[in-house]
Amino acid sequence: MEFFTPQPPLADFPIAGTPLRALVLRGPMSLLAYIGVPLDHWAAGTDLDFRCHWGITFEGEGEGMMRPAGWYWWGWDYGHCTDVVDLPPLSPEWQERIDDFRRALLEHFNDWREDRGLEPVTGFTPMEQKRWTAAEVVEDVMDVAMNVKAALEAAEAGAAALSGGNADS
Question: Given this model, what pLDDT does residue 141 score?
Fold first, then answer.
């Protein structure tokens, strides 16, 4: 039994006025987003640094299954502590292990609180989490793409300045 079978993209489109392409996929536990450039673009393979949801978690060439071949991709996911993560159902044995761990953690935490003269707590308040929709991820990808476009333009302008005014020389 396979853990995950790749699915068709939820969104796959060029970013107008740029060499960039956007890709949004459903991963095994969360939505995934990518910005790509053609493999023959000067930025392919470079260590681009741009802001995206919790940072870049993938860099590399498309393999032709999840990420189209012929492109270099930078990707990130929406499966972090502030995101709702869709986990497969747990077996009763695993659920019992997790419940035991939570009880032990709470006991340890309350021992720590008692040592400091603090009142014990009865449980942990869950952090507010966001369930991302594909449309929200596409909107986020568009924002990231504009930042990447600006970074590429700044790098090209810097190269042009170093080469005497022509980035292609």
Answer: 97
pLDDT > 90? residue 26: yes
Angle at CA 71, nearest 5°, toward 36 and 18? Answer: 45
Q: How many domains does the chain have?
A: 2
The C-alpha angle 140, 142, 146, rounded to 5 degrees, equals 120
The reply to whether 3 falls in a domain is no
List the domain range (segments joined by +) for residue 97.
87-126
If asked whether residues 121 and 133 sit together in one domain, one would say no
The 10s digit of each residue's pLDDT in 121-147 is 887 666 678 999 999 999 999 999 999
Mean pLDDT of the chain: 89
Q: Give domain status of residue 6, yes or no.
A: no
Q: Which residues have C-beta within 8 Å of that of residue 164, sequence separation ≥ 6?
A: none
pLDDT of residue 169 exceeding 60: no
Residue 152 belongs to a domain:
yes
State the pairing for strand pair 11-14/21-26.
Answer: antiparallel
Q: Write down the pLDDT at residue 5.
A: 79
Strand order across the 71-77 sheet: 11-14, 21-26, 31-38, 71-77, 58-61
| 93 assigned to some structural domain | yes
